[in-house]
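Consider one such protein record:
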Amino acid sequence: MADTYKPYISGVTNCISLSKQMLNEQGHQAVVFTLGHTGYSDSETDVVRSPALPLLNTGFSIGFNYSPSARDRLRTMDLIHVHHPFLSGRLALRYCHGYNTPIIFTNHTRYDLYAQAYMPFIPAGLSRFYVSRTLARFCAACDLVIAPSAGLKKVLRSFGVQSDIEVIPNGVDLTPHRSVQGSRHRSEFGLLGSDLLLIYLGRIGPEKNLDFLLRAFALAQSRVSNLKLLVVGGGPRLAWARAEVKGRGLESVARVAGPVSYADVPEVLALADIFATASTTEVHPLSLIEALASGLPAIGIASPGIEDTIVNGQNGFLCSYNEHEFADRIVRLSADAELRHRMAQEARCSAERYDVRRTVAATLKHYERLIEQRRRRQPLPG
């Protein structure tokens, strides 16, 4: 169950879609229940949509009920896996608790930090109180909570969540990153083969802290003449990012390419030498993991999610929230080809633990355990 699904593309959407595919390949039937986009023509089976009102141009929709046919089908499920707590989570409790259907919740988002980024007019303490109280209550009603990183598990405990929490990373399909065909070229982005290329690939929104990244890049570029930056992704601050590059006089050294298809992500990452992210709101940064799988040393700010993924000095560098320190790490990697090569090898190795086949297998064990517990309590219908 998810508040939104395709055609809206995000890390959560990709995670659900990939997990669904893996489960189906293993002989299970995974069904997605979601809200809105009822006119969208799905290229996959078993996507059940209920009418909802679109929330401006965010890709999300507001709905407080499932259609009668969706409710009927939901009640035939052996287990419910919720990926958004506020709408889908409430619907799961309303429609499934009376049937003793096991409910698992994966917390994908730092909702407290997103609230500060998108609703800065609400005092941080007030938004954190609401988020922590709501999450604690919802998690208490679930049979299992999954945190994609150890750092997020600590955050949930700080919110007062006392439920069972398992740390299971969101899976990434590493196969495309292992067999890049070289179908994309730097020249498409106005870049040269001799450039030392720093890349950010991901959502372009206020929570991603791109203004920090641009400042750090400008500092580093003043010391490394052939250093270039490529920003790839879509989001509400895409136009802002392009204007910011122009306003800072970085047009000759920085490119804001906009979004690419998900299938092209491995090919685009393969063009770069270093991956950088300044986000501190991550739970489990899939784009960072994809970069590691592509053999890119990574630079990030020490924070939950990021520090669970980057091992400082091995597959990249962790920095404090200091743009000069961040720039120093960019310069160090830019100047040392041997270090980049060593970290690239470590990056590929470290990504292996996130292979979707491993993560789905770990999740499936909990599915089977909870379904068996339900069978012991009462016979399943039919």
Remarks:
- The longest helix spans residues 356-377.
- The chain has two domains: 11-171+356-377, 175-354.
